[in-house]
């Protein structure tokens, strides 16, 4: 009986996993483009205001994300404010 209950709970959790992941990381259309024009690159302020990039890397702030975009030439968007 305990096995059946555990199995039902696991199925319920697995069924909810996509819902949880989608709420954590929105669709691509909701990603925002960093405003790199406001920063005097190559230097960035040392303030800690993390952002999660579409490359699934956490950047200390938007300016450091802009530096990465400039160095690598990749189009990285901001998924959300805060760490990934």
From TrEMBL:
Please state every residue range assigned to the domain named Kazal-like.
30-84
* Database matches in InterPro entries: Kazal_dom, Kazal_dom_sf, SPINK2
> Among its keywords, does the record have Signal?
yes
Q: Which SUPFAM superfamilies match?
A: Kazal-type serine protease inhibitors
Give any Pfam family that matches: Kazal_1
Keywords (A to Z) from UniProt: Protease inhibitor, Serine protease inhibitor, Signal
Question: What residue stretch is flagged as signal peptide?
Answer: 1-22
The GO terms describing molecular function are: serine-type endopeptidase inhibitor activity
User: Out of the domains of life, which is the source?
Assistant: Eukaryota
Q: What is this protein called?
A: Serine protease inhibitor Kazal-type 2
């Amino acid at each position: 009986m305990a096995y059946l209950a555990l199995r039902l709970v696991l199925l319920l959790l697995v069924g909810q996993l996509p819902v949880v992941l989608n709420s954590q990381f929105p669709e691509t259309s909701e990603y925002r483009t960093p405003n790199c024009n406001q920063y005097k690159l190559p230097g960035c302020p040392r303030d800690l205001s993390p952002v999660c990039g579409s490359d699934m890397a956490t950047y200390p702030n938007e300016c450091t994300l802009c530096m990465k975009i400039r160095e690598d030439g990749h189009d990285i968007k901001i998924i959300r404010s805060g760490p990934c």
